[in-house]
């Protein structure tokens, strides 16, 4: 996919990030959630909240295709994937894999991260397993009431040469 452009998000990208995240969440996440949890999630994906998270240091890696935002990877503390969305019509094209590799490489470069975590919704568990994540605990409700499964990815530790 040679037209795909990956870059770090900026504050002025927040409206586009919000639009894509909310669209994907409505289609894929909200059906498994209570109404209250779904509405709270949509609020957390609003432009104002996303801008604040960016100001606080959360990094958003963005995938653009022909000028259209098609994917988002939001990383907190260079170790916890908090948001990961690829537009429905763009799924199955390898965008998610490229976006994840980009976010992971950034965290490795910035912080030397060797362990990544996330809380996956039911529909996303197979995607994260494809990336090498494993289930790290039982499915349950987050403090915000969203039904998720904790997952982790442990990178091989570098070997020390004797």
UniProtKB/TrEMBL annotation:
Gene3D superfamilies referenced in this protein's UniProt entry, alphabetically: 3.40.630.30
Pfam families xref list: Acetyltransf_10
Domain N-acetyltransferase: 4-156
InterPro entries in UniProt: Acyl_CoA_acyltransferase, GNAT_dom, N-acetyltrans/Recomb-assoc
CDD domains given in the database record: NAT_SF (cd04301)
Span of the signal peptide: none
Name of the protein this chain belongs to: GNAT family N-acetyltransferase
Organism name: Frateuria flava
